[in-house]
């Protein structure tokens, strides 16, 4: 059936609006699920283990390499002005306010978000979520809210680890390899990073953690409602791709917005 | 006689690819008497599973009313729907076992989540149900390690745990051998006699399931025909029912009638 472009545009608009509405209700239910009894403490721990501890390796590797690149790159730029003393300040501010929260969120989306999306998507198409509904076991309390809580706890912690490892990486590249004065690296960092900067980083990491877990689990939960995703295993695959892409883009957009508002 | 579930002019249609609709239920009305067993039969794709999902509120009807113990599931939502669902025991056509839980954990789940029973009591109850369904020794396996028929039986064990008021079974014996099938129907009859639940069984095992059925509904092209006895089906003048009798029941059915 052929339809004119205006009709198709309208359809897409309606779909987007409907999707947004669905996701908003989903978020509300996930938050409500946190307060419903019995609380699934062990499941939260299991998810922290998966999202948090499981992501440690990739976070540490990314942070170390990012920090070292920042150290080298920063040294190269600052050296031109004879301002190598500012390296500690440049590296730490960049990591704490920008790269730490953003890269951590992107890594968690790729590693844990995709897995959570696929898990829920498969549970949906094999009627396991329907079965929970029928046993009057709230799937939010049982399955989804623990993932939310775990992500909200893990992502900020991972971000802190990212920052620390990154700053260490910058130290290795700048001080150990390029010969910047160690005292000035540390002192530059101490004098320039304020509480406000750290707060910004922490707020960002909370928001990003929420965005990632919300979008990734939501795509899986609504796998049957995703337009054009097809059916069965294919739809879960598409939903997972969409979850990672959508959550990454949203994180980048919110990064800009939060920086603009809070800086 | 009181009514457990009542369909009033229920319509359910799905959009077809490329426009138009496929009407699965076309103004269907019937009632399921409380404490009795109703068998729903009909060809593949006629809407039997959809009927069960409508009753559970997992799908919404496009018209009409579905009254479950006085509540209209086409309009209720949230807590009320959740409360209503506590009265059901459900076996899905695809079993719908939780694949990250073992057989034991699957069956114990409703007891752990919905009752205050201690672990010892739960263990006793779960193990005895598993034993009755010939699943002893498999309790630590995961669903992926089970055969199709075993999954069905685990799903059944799970559905029986909470002593529901209404049982919905979607093809409980598909994939089971004839002996096991007979056993399962035996178990149904026994538990129903003990617990007095109302039940709907979707089944193709027409001759065998007739021993249990107080009422048989045949679904065909969006319409339902209700029969209160097997004989009535045979005497039906409708073409598709005659055909159904001939093809699905055939001679076994004839001999079965003589036995009765
Ligand atoms: N979610 C859905 N979206 C679109 N069409 C659907 C959906 N679910 C079921 N249908 C259609 O509704 C019809 C009835 O499906 P249903 O699953 O109820 O069949 P059934 O009677 O249970 O068959 P079977 O004996 O093979 O299990 C089918 O034609 C099916 O294609
Ligand atoms: Mg079916």
What can you tell me about this protein's structure?
The complex is a heterodimer of chains A (263) and B (260). By secondary structure, chain A is mainly alpha-helical. Chain A has one domain. Helices cover 83% and strands 0% of the residues of chain A. Chain A is built from 9 helices and no strands. Chain A has helices at residues 5-34, 41-51, 56-79, 87-125, 128-134, 139-177, 182-192, 195-221, 232-262. In chain A, helix 4 packs antiparallel against helix 9 and helix 6 packs across helix 8 (195-221). The mean pLDDT of chain A is 93. In chain B, strand 9 and strand 10 form a beta hairpin. The model of chain B is unreliable at 251-260 (pLDDT under 50). Chain B folds into 2 domains: 1-87 and 164-179 and 197-247, Rossmann fold, CATH 3.40.50.300; 98-163, no CATH class. In chain B, helix 3 runs parallel beside helix 5 (148-160). In chain B, strands 6-7-8-3-9-10 form a 6-stranded mixed beta sheet, sandwiched between helices. A 4-stranded antiparallel beta sheet of chain B has the order 2-1-4-5, covered by helices on one side. In chain B, 37% of the residues are buried. Chain B is built from 9 helices and 10 strands. Chain B is α/β, with parallel strands linked by helices and 260 residues long. Bound molecules: adenosine-5'-triphosphate and magnesium ion. Adenosine-5'-triphosphate (ATP) binds next to helix 1 of chain B.
